[in-house]
Amino acid sequence: MTKPRALPAFAAFNAIIALAFGTFAAHGIKDPQARDWIMTGVLFQLPHVAAVFGLLAWRNSPLVVRPAWAVSIGSFIFAVVLDALALGAPRMIAALAPIGGSLMMIGWFWIAIVALVIDKIEPE
Q1: Where are the domains of the chain?
Q2: For a surface tag, which of 81, 82, 83, 117 has the fewest beta carbons within 10 Å of its beta carbon?
Q3: Distance separating alpha carbons of residues 84 and 73, to the nearest angstrom
Q4: Cα–Cα distance, 30 to 22 (Å, whole number)
Q5: 76 and 14 in contact (C-beta within 8 Å)?
Q6: Can you list the pairs that 62-66 forms with residues at least 24 positions away whose Cβ atoms lie under 8 Å?
Q7: Which residues, other chains included, contact 56 with Cβ-Cβ below 8 Å and sequence gap of 6+?
């Protein structure tokens, strides 16, 4: 198991990337397609950062932390792929974006299952 501070630190790093790229897109990107890619990444990244902190506030347990990692890593991968495309990376890198999206969905599905059974498995 990772250290308890690793997930919130990663989530904060994720927020920094989202804010930096969102600001860059708003003020420094002229190409509309590149701006759209970055803003789509930000649109997915920032809410998932907040959600990870909400999940940790709800229950800082391995049953919640593991899927929160999936959500956080998934949003990071998804957004960074779009950021890379906007900065001119080869289009084939776009094939990695569904990995990030899938990790986010798996994490949220996992959280839904945990939410239904956590009190039976791990009473507060």
Answers
A1: 6-121
A2: 117
A3: 16
A4: 13
A5: yes
A6: 62/1, 63/114, 63/118, 63/121, 63/122, 64/111, 64/114, 64/118, 65/1, 65/7, 66/110
A7: 7, 8, 64, 65, 68
User: Residue for token digits 């990376």?
Assistant: 89
Nearest to 12 by CA among 43, 38, 41, 50: 50
Return per-residue pLDDT of the chain as tens, 124 residues: 456 789 999 999 999 999 999 999 999 999 999 999 999 999 999 999 999 999 999 988 889 999 999 999 999 999 999 999 999 999 999 999 999 999 999 999 999 999 999 877 766 6
CB contact set of 3 (below 8 Å; sequence gap of 6+): none
